[in-house]
Amino acid sequence: METAALTSHNVHRVFTLLKFTFGLVPIIAGLDKFTDLLTDWDKYLNPSIAQMLPFSPHTFMMIVGVIEIVAGLIVLARPAIGAYIVMAWLICIALQLIIGKGYFDVAVRDLVMAMGAYSLAQLARTEAQPKVRESSGVQFSGGQALNH
Q1: pTM of the predicted structure, to 2 decimals
Q2: What is the pLDDT of residues 7-23, one digit of tens each?
């Protein structure tokens, strides 16, 4: 049976992967609000919200795009703060999808992504703490944690 140690190096790799994921994906999605290359973003807007807007749904989505770009940049610069912003943003998107047009598959995906952003925020707190000796890592073997 293979044993994998949960070392600070491994945790840092996961942290870095999540940081770039939750930094770059909002930036890409935000930029795409101006081009609609990935999808027609306007169709995901709750019709009730669209009717209340003083401007077109597309203009609203471009504003959303700017917010997403800024959120992604904050994640890259300050992941401990930015991850919470992205998490809250994803939850808001999921709620408006559930209440609105019933894009439940996308809403579930966004809620799962929000959990990933929360995980990044928690790891960012760990990354900010002083490093502990490598030998104090936790090893996993056969589904059980072994403290060393």
Answers
A1: 0.80
A2: 788 889 999 999 999 99
Return the beta strands (E) in the chain as ranges: 3-6, 138-141, 144-147
The candidate with the shortest Cα–Cα distance to 62, out of 104, 32, 25, is: 32
Print the SS3 string covering 73-120: HHHHHCHHHHHHHHHHHHHHHHHHHHHCCCCHHHHHHHHHHHHHHHHH
- Report whether 110 contacts 94 (CB < 8 A): yes
Nearest to 81 by CA among 32, 19, 38: 19
> Is 24:113 a contact under the CB 8 Å cutoff?
no
Q: How far apart are CA 22 and CA 26, in angstroms?
A: 7
- Evaluate if residue 75 carries a pLDDT over 90: yes
